[in-house]
Write a structure and sequence with these properties.
The protein has 20 helices and 23 strands. The protein folds into 3 domains: 110 residues, DNA ligase, ATP-dependent, N-terminal domain (DNA ligase i, domain 1, Orthogonal Bundle); 203 residues, DNA ligase/mRNA capping enzyme (D-amino Acid Aminotransferase, Chain A, domain 1), CATH 3.30.470.30; 147 residues, Nucleic acid-binding proteins (OB fold (Dihydrolipoamide Acetyltransferase, E2P)). The protein is of the alpha+beta class and 583 residues long. Strands 13, 14, 15, 16, 17, 18, 19 and 23 form an 8-stranded mixed β-sheet that branches. Strands 3, 4, 5, 6, 7, 8 and 9 form a 7-stranded mixed β-sheet that branches. Strands 1-12-11-2-10 form a 5-stranded mixed β-sheet. It is 38% helix and 23% strand. Bound molecules: adenosine monophosphate (AMP).
C-alpha cells in the first residue's frame, strides 16, 4: 500500500467528528490492506510503530524533527522554527513549508518503507545516533508529498492524535472482516490477552476468526489487567458479588505490576502495559528468587513498604521511582515490595479460565514468600461483618481499603474487564457523601484574574465503554495548589488539539476554550451526582439531560491510568441511582 493512501485516510479521519464515520473509513481502509501491512497500518492509526508494550518508538523530539525538516526541505533551521511557532505543530510545518529541495523521486513511499525507516530510527543507538535518526527521517521526508510529510513527522514525534481508540479500531476490524461491528467481542478478547492489535488484525486476515480465537497467552506479552467495580455502600458488596464465600484482600496503593517469569528472564509491565522492568530491579530479583515455577505470569501491586516503621509509604513516594536515571540508587532508598494477588499462567498453562480459588491455590504453591514478595493478605468470609472488620483493620494498618473477590466456580480472570467479580472499597468512600472518580481531561477554560495565563478550570469526562466515547461530568477549578495551577498549560501542551476530538461528547454550554485529546486521567473528589442539562454523561437525547458531579475537587493526577481505564459512565449511573434510592 502506498503511504499516500494511508495519509489521505488519516486526513479524512481527522476531519470527521463522528465515531461511526471513523469506523466506516477505517473498515474500508483495512479491507483493502494486505496481510503484510495490516499490522503496521493498525499501529500507525494508533500513532505507534509496534504494539504499545514493545516500547519501540522512534523517539524523535521536536528539535530533531525540525532539523530533519530543514535538511529535507533545503531551508535553514530558523525558518522551520519560525513556522513552528506560528503553526504550533511540526507536522503542519513539514506539510506547508515551500520545499526548495527537488520534489520526491519517482518511486512513491510504501507503508512498508515507512515502517522500515521508523524501525531503523528506533533501533539507532550509541554515539551519533541522534544524527542518524535525523537523517533517516529527512530521507523519508524528501521522498514524500506534503500530506505524507505531515504524518511522517507526527508519527516520528509520537503526536498522531487521530483520536482513534483501540475499541474503535477493533470495531472497524469486525466491520471489515466479520460483517458488522457487533462481532467485536472475540476480537476484543484476543486483544485483551495479547495486547497487540496488529497481531489480532494480521491473524484475522490470514486465518479468520478461528485463528484469532486460538491466539495464546504468551510470555513477555502483557495481558490487559482485570479491573475492580465499585459500590456506594459497603453493604452492597455481598449481594453484588453473589458468591457464598468472598475473599477480602488488602488493597495496596502502589503501582499495578504484571510480572512474566521465563526462567531467569523477568519482564514487568505496568497497568498501561508499558515495560517497566528497568524501574524495578528489586522486584525482578524477588520474582527470580521466590517464584519456584519455571514460567509464570503474576499480577500484583508494587508498594513501598517502610520496614523500620512497619507501614506503607503513600503512592506518591513510590512514584519517585518512575525515572530513567539513578534507578538503582532510588531503588535502595525506596525499596519496593511485591504483593501478588493473581496467577495468570504457570509452566506453559494459561490460568485465566480457572476460578479465583484455583488461581490463588496455584499462586501459593509456586511462591515461597518473604518480606519482599508475598501473596496479598486476605480473609475468606460469607458476611458483611467479616468484610467490615477486615476493612477496618486494613485502614488501621495504613492501607487504602479492600478488594472483595468472588470465589464462585466462574470467577475467571476477565482480562481488560471491569465486572462485579472484583469490588473495591476505599477509605474515601467511607463517608457516604463523597465519591472519587478517575476522569479524563478533555478541555480547559482560560483563567481570568489571578489565574490569567493559566487555565481556570478543566473539563472532565467519564468513559462510555459501550460507545467507546468520552462524556463530560464536570468542569473542575478547585483543589489545585498554586504550583499545580501554574503547571496546567505545560501538562496539557502535547495533547492540545484545535478542534473537538471525535470521541468526545460535549454540550454547547460546556464547550471549553481549549480542547485536549483524551489522554490524561485525574482523580476527582465530588459531593454528589445529579442530573444536568450541561454534561453529557449517560446522555438522554429525549430529555436532553446527562449526569454531573457536583463540587468537584482535584485530588491527584493518575498518569498511570489510560483514558479507557477511567471511571465509566455506567459506574457514574450506578452511583447516581444508589444515592437516589436512599444510599
Ligand atoms: P483503583 O486504581 O482505585 O481503580 O483500584 C484498582 C486498583 O487497585 C487495581 O488496578 C490494582 O492496581 C490495585 N490493587 C491493590 N490491591 C489489590 C488487590 N488485592 N486486588 C486487586 N487490585 C488491587
Amino acid at each position: 500500500m502506498k503511504f499516500a493512501t494511508l495519509a489521505s485516510c488519516f486526513e479524512r479521519l481527522e476531519a470527521t467528528s463522528s465515531r461511526n464515520d471513523m469506523i466506516a473509513i477505517l473498515a474500508r481502509l483495512l479491507a483493502g490492506t494486505s496481510p503484510d501491512e495490516i499490522g503496521i497500518v493498525c499501529y500507525f492509526v494508533l500513532g505507534e510503530i509496534g504494539p504499545g508494550y514493545s516500547g519501540v518508538t522512534p523517539g524523535i523530539g521536536d528539535r530533531t524533527a525540525a532539523a530533519a525538516i530543514a535538511l529535507a526541505a533545503g531551508v535553514d533551521l530558523a525558518s522551520v522554527e519560525t513556522a513552528a511557532r506560528k503553526l504550533g505543530d511540526y507536522g503542519d510545518v513539514a506539510a506547508s513549508l515551500a520545499w526548495s529541495a527537488p520534489e520526491g523521486p519517482a518511486e512513491p513511499l510504501t507503508v512498508t518503507d515507512v515502517h522500515r525507516g521508523f524501525m531503523e530510527i528506533a533501533q539507532a543507538s550509541g554515539p551519533g545516533s541522534a544524527d542518524r535518526k535525523m537523517r533517516i527521517l529527512a530521507a523519508m521526508l524528501a521522498a514524500a508529498t506534503p500530506t505524507e510529510r505531515r504524518y511522517l513527522v507526527r508519527l516520528a514525534t509520537g503526536k498522531m492524535r487521530l483520536g482513534v481508540g483501540d475499541m474503535t479500531l477493533l470495531d472497524a476490524l469486525a466491520e471489515a472482516f466479520l460483517g458488522s461491528k457487533a462481532e467485536r467481542p472475540p476480537l476484543e478478547h484476543a486483544y485483551n490477552i495479547s495486547s497487540d492489535i496488529g497481531l489480532v488484525a494480521r491473524t484475522l486476515l490470514e486465518e479468520g476468526l478461528s485463528g484469532v480465537l486460538a491466539i495464546p497467552v504468551t510470555l513477555h506479552r502483557p495481558i490487559r489487567p482485570m479491573l475492580a467495580q465499585r459500590v456506594s455502600r459497603i453493604s452492597e458488596i455481598p449481594e453484588r458479588i453473589g458468591s457464598p464465600v468472598i475473599a477480602v484482600e488488602e488493597k495496596y496503593d502502589g503501582e499495578r505490576i504484571q510480572a512474566h517469569k521465563d526462567g531467569d528472564d523477568v519482564t514487568l509491565f505496568s497497568r498501561r502495559l508499558i515495560d517497566v522492568t528497568h524501574q524495578y530491579p528489586d522486584i525482578v530479583r524477588h520474582v527470580r528468587r521466590c517464584v519456584t515455577a519455571d514460567t509464570a505470569i503474576l499480577d500484583g501491586e508494587a508498594v513501598a513498604f517502610d520496614h523500620e516503621i512497619g507501614t506503607y509509604h503513600p503512592f506518591q513516594t513510590l512514584m519517585r521511582r518512575r525515572r530513567k536515571h539513578r534507578v538503582r540508587e532510588v531503588a535502595s532508598e525506596i525499596p519496593a515490595t511485591y504483593r501478588v494477588f493473581d496467577l495468570l499462567y504457570v509452566n506453559g498453562e494459561p490460568y485465566l479460565h480457572r476460578s479465583y480459588p484455583e488461581r490463588r491455590a496455584g499462586l501459593e504453591a509456586i511462591l515461597s514468600p518473604d518480606e519482599q514478595i508475598s501473596p496479598a493478605d486476605r480473609i475468606l468470609t460469607g458476611d458483611l461483618d467479616g468484610i467490615r472488620s477486615f476493612y477496618l483493620s486494613c485502614i488501621e494498618r495504613g492501607l487504602e481499603g479492600i478488594v472483595c473477590k468472588s470465589c464462585a466456580d466462574d470467577s475467571f480472570y476477565r482480562a481488560g474487564a471491569r465486572e462485579w467479580q472484583w469490588i473495591k472499597w476505599k477509605s474515601d468512600y467511607g463517608t457516604e457523601l463523597v465519591d472519587t472518580l478517575d476522569l479524563v481531561v478533555v478541555g480547559a477554560n482560560a483563567g481570568r484574574g489571578k489565574r490569567a495565563g493559566t487555565y481556570g478550570s478543566v473539563l472532565c469526562a467519564a468513559y462510555n465503554h459501550e460507545e467507546d466515547i468520552f462524556q463530560t461530568v464536570c468542569s473542575m477549578g478547585t483543589g489545585f495548589s498554586n504550583a499545580d495551577l501554574a503547571d496546567l498549560p505545560r501538562r496539557f501542551a502535547d495533547v492540545r488539539v484545535d478542534r473537538q476530538p471525535a470521541r468526545v461528547m460535549v454540550t454547547p454550554q460546556a464547550a471549553p476554550d481549549f480542547w485536549f485529546a483524551p489522554a490524561r486521567v485525574v482523580e476527582v473528589l465530588g459531593l454528589e451526582i445529579t442530573e444536568s442539562p450541561v454534561h453529557t454523561c449517560n446522555w438522554d437525547p429525549e430529555r436532553r439531560r446527562g449526569l454531573a458531579l457536583r463540587f468537584p475537587r482535584f485530588v491527584r493526577w493518575r498518569d498511570e491510568k489510560s483514558p479507557e481505564a477511567a471511571t465509566t459512565t455506567a459506574e457514574v449511573v450506578a452511583m447516581f441511582r444508589r444515592r437516589r434510592e436512599g444510599g
